[in-house]
Amino acid sequence: xxxxxxxxxxxxxxxxxxxxxxxxxxxxxxxxxxxxxxxxxxxxxxxxxxxxxxxxxxxxxxxxxxxxxxxxxxxxxxxxxxxxxxxxxxxxxxxxxxxxxxxxxxxxxxxxxxxxxxxxxxxxxxxxxxxxxxxxxxxxxxxxxxxxxxxxxxxxxxxxxxxxxxxxxxx
Length: 171
Known about the structure:
The strands form two sheets. A four-stranded antiparallel beta sheet has the order 1-4-5-6. A two-stranded antiparallel ribbon has the order 2-3. The protein is built from five helices and six strands. It is globular. The protein is α+β, with helices and mostly antiparallel strands.
């Protein structure tokens, strides 16, 4: 009788422990953040064909790899785009139930970049939506945040730089 009671208590502890562990896994899974880092690193290095592996068809407008990569290259060249230091933050992933994590996550990023219109560079606050598709995390949406009200929930302690006037002024 005591043995059956001990087994029952052990099973309860194992059940509670597995539910707790699964919940922790939802919020600490590094894979969504890693997908965004890999995508941004490929874009920074102008390896657009490699970046294609980290985005969904929605992000490419259904274009094949070669067409999408060529378009990205053209935009980077025409715009004089350069990406600076990467600052990808940990993902926020919802726990749907005691045993199930959402198949999507939000990944905040602070983008440091420059282009022909802003050669001094800018700081942009972004949130990427990544989805688990075919066993891989891929970016499905990128949202740029503007204004303190939109930025603060994702970046509560970051300094929000003042916008610079990049247009030439009349003398």
